[in-house]
Specification:
- It is a single chain.
- By secondary structure, this protein is of the alpha+beta class.
- 42% of the residues lie in helices and 25% in strands.
- The chain contains 19 helices and 19 strands.
- The chain has a 19-stranded antiparallel β-sheet, with helices on both faces.
- α9 (253-276) packs antiparallel against α11.
- The chain is globular.
- The two termini are 55 Å apart.
Amino acid sequence: MEVQTMLKSRRLRDVAATGLLVLFIFAAALSAQSPADSELLKMIPAKTLFCVRVNNFDYTLNQIDQFLAGASPMPMGVSMLVRMQLANLLGSPQLTGLNTNGSFAVFGVTMPGETTQADAIPDIFVGILAPVTDYKQFIDGNTNCIEGDEKGISKITMNGAPVMLAAKAGNYSLMSWANDYEKLVTMTKAISATGSAGLSGILKAADAKQAETEPIWAYGNVEQVSGTFGSMISAKIEEIKTIMKSMEATQPEASRASVQNIMNMYAGILDTLMKETQSVSIAINPKPDVLNITKTVSAIPGMDMAKMLTADGSSQRENSLLTYLEDGAMANFGATVNTSFWKKLNVRSIDLIAMMSGDSMSAENITQFKTLAANVTECLDGPVAYSISNDAKNKPPFTVKYVVAVKDEKKFNQFIEKATDIMTTSGLMDFYKSLGIETSFSMKRDVDSYKGISISSATLSMKSTDTNSPQAQMITSMYGEGFDYRWGMVDGLFACAVSGDVNSTIRELIDQVKTDSPKQIGSEMKTALSLLPEANKADFVITFNVLRLFNFATSLVPMPIPPMDVQTNSNIVIAGRAADSRMVVNMAVPKRHLIEIVSAFMMMQQKMSQ
């Protein structure tokens, strides 16, 4: 049993090592379009657990060098580092016979065979497909490669010891670890079998095109992974729960129950994702001034997630409120309400909250929350915009301003009152108390007015049950006496503010909404949104500035940390859209922001060393 365990542990280490190899050698592939290579996609088994594919290898490495130029502190480019590693592996600086203009792939697949309860980890084959101009030249021209045996399997050695194996597979060399001889023989025969559509046979057309044209494409078959490792993952989660339960023996009973409920919530999220997600893919493409990343999550047809990831007419228009995204903010959020998606997402979110709160919320409370969430969604008129900025001089140390378009102001105000009632009577506050945080929420209507707009207010108070604890000191340091909200209805918009000087903030926001001059997107936000041209039509768009977020985070910790004193006016941008049982999220990282981040951290290191 111990020997089997060691072998399995080693197998897992091999898989992990492969991941690192992929990241180090192939994660540079960030370039423009490369020629399609349908042969490679057909050679990868249809039931592969994961695949990482790189197109146009040399050009890709050069592209990442261009993106990192001026930002990376490394003395040499990624392309040189990668070629040095390959030359060291093959024993030839010329990389004889290796087609470095072609497409490379790494994949992992379970091998046929039975598993038992005592030996639940299946055999996994990890293969690397490297394109060759001539396989014989590849073996004969690289000093670390040894002539193939009677089954066509060659050894790749380093310092006389075999580290990898290689075999011919079409116009590729299929390589594996040195201890996977029989697996390589089996996989070479399977790949060489005629009539196999491989991975291309199960991918949607859009995914197949992305795999063949994007510089780097990573794919995970979640459905396959769940079927292979699902029971083992579930067992590990239960094991963690048991360990945490034993560690909680000294804690109050209410606190123990709360921690257990939180664990149940996370387990529920993982269980849902494993059971309802079909696949996840990530495509990466840099240009000299920006790095583009596209993540696609596909749901299993017929499942609740698939029904949630759909588009409707309400999400097919531009977001007219993006003018409220603020220059200088640490984060902005805009959305065009996809009614179908938001309704189902709210139901899922409330189920998770109920799971987390345990017995604190009754079935009636949960139903009330779901009904209210559905009604609020129906009352929205499409666009939403939030802006969050640092405000280190006040408590809380941030300012939030948001505007929401509503169809019926009277109904919306009624929903706010209903939400307040549910929050204060549902038992949700009792859950936070069990975690050692006493919370209360109160609302007052029409407490003020400004330029003919009635202003209402609310307060969310938070304090630790143990006033002398470090937790209590941190809460006080972060939030003071709590959050103060002010809001009003202005020309069909729900305008709301949360800040330390909330009276001034809500007035600024009302002025901004009521201005007669045409509203324009700020120059900083205009530049950010231009990185993703379709961002104004996405279900959601997010911008964030890493340095401003870092300064905000450091302002919350008890020990003094000097802020990053670097001029920054660039932002990372994310935009997503749900449709056809898929969520596609695009991300743009400008090179300018990367340079700002690197410069700031280097300056901080210098200050710390002094």
